Amino acid sequence: MSGSIVLFGPPGAGKGTQAGRIVDLTGKPQVSTGDMLRTAVKAGTKMGAEAKVYMDAGLLVPDSVIIGLIEERLTQSDAVNGVLFDGFPRTIPQAESLANIAVVESVISIEVPDDAIVERIVGRRMDPETGDIYHITFNPAPSEIESRLIQRKDDTEETVRARLEAYHTQTAPLATWYSERGLLISIDGNQPIDQVGDAVEDAVRTTMSV
Ligand code: AP5
C-alpha cells in the first residue's frame, strides 16, 4: 500500500475533521498545504509573507509555491509509503505535477452545498495547542479549553465567499479530471460528522484494500 490518498472538497467540507480517521486507518501522514502555509506565515518566512496576502483574500496561492512545498515534503522519510493529501491538489497544474512525483490511488471527494459551508466556516474554532477542529454548534469544544480556542483569520463570511468562488472556478474541475482517471469516489458530506467519517472509512477500505 504505497500510494497516496487525496482528500478533496470545498473549503469547510470537513477534510481536516476527517483526516485523523484516515491517518489512523492507513498510517499515512497527513499533508495539509493549508497547515504548511499557516506554519510558514507564523514563522515569518518570506514565502509565508507572500502566501499570506493570497490566503487573507481567499485566493489560491500560486501553483509554483505549492508544488515546491509538496516536492520538498515528499522527500521526507515518512512519505515513502504514500501520504494523505488534505487540500492539495487544488488546480489541474498541481494535479499534473503531483502525477509526475507520486502515485495517487484514491481521491475521496466530500461534497457539501455552498449554503452549508458558510455556517460551518464562520463557526469553526481551532485549538492552537493540539490542532483539533471544533464548531460552536456542530462540534463544541470541552468547556475547559474554550478560552484558548482561536478563529482562523480567513474564516470570515466575506473571505469564505471568495474561497468558494476560487473553489468553483479553479478546483472543482479537478473532480472531472480525477473521475476520468477512475480515481474519484464521492461522499455526501452534508450529514453528521460521524456518518461522514464512516463513509470516508468505507471509501478508503474499498479503494485502498486496507
Ligand atoms: P486550507 O487550510 O486548506 O482551507 P480550506 O480548503 O479552505 O479548507 P478548510 O480548512 O477551511 O476546511 P476543511 O474541509 O478542512 O473543513 P474542517 O474539517 O475544518 O487552505 C487555506 C488557504 O491556503 C486557501 O484559501 C489558499 O489560500 C491556501 N491554500 C491551501 N492549499 C492550497 C493549494 N493546494 N493551492 C493553493 N492555495 C492553497 O471543517 C470546517 C468546520 O465544519 C469545522 O468547524 C468543523 O467542526 C465543521 N464540520 C466538519 N464536518 C462537519 C459535518 N459533517 N457537519 C457539521 N459540521 C462539520
Please describe the topology of this protein.
Elements: E1 4-8, H1 15-26, E2 30-32, H2 33-43, H3 46-57, H4 63-73, E3 84-86, H5 92-101, E4 104-111, H6 114-122, E5 124-126, E6 133-135, H7 157-171, H8 173-180, E7 184-188, H9 193-208
Parallel strand pairs: 1-3, 1-4, 2-3, 4-7
Antiparallel strand pairs: 5-6
The structure holds BIS(adenosine)-5'-pentaphosphate.
Residues 9, 11-17, 33-34, 37, 54-55, 58-61, 66, 87-90, 94, 120-121, 123-124, 133-135, 138-139, 154, 163, 189, 192-193, 196 line the site of BIS(adenosine)-5'-pentaphosphate (AP5).
Give the structure's gist in a few sentences:
The protein is α/β, with parallel strands linked by helices. The chain has helices at residues 15-26, 33-43, 46-57, 63-73, 92-101, 114-122, 157-171, 173-180, 193-208; strands at residues 4-8, 30-32, 84-86, 104-111, 124-126, 133-135, 184-188. It is globular.
The string of secondary-structure elements, in order, is EHEHHHEHEHEEHHEH
Number of helices: 9
- Structural class comes to alpha/beta
Q: Report strand %.
A: 5-15%
Strand order of the largest sheet: 2-3-1-4-7
Main β-sheet, in a few words? 5 strands, parallel
Radius of gyration: 16 Å
How many strand segments? Answer: 7
Task: Provide the list of bound ligands, each named once.
Answer: BIS(adenosine)-5'-pentaphosphate
N-C termini distance: 8 Å
What is the averaged pLDDT score?
A: 95
Helix content: 40-55%
Can you tell me the overall shape?
globular
**Low-confidence blocks of residues:** none
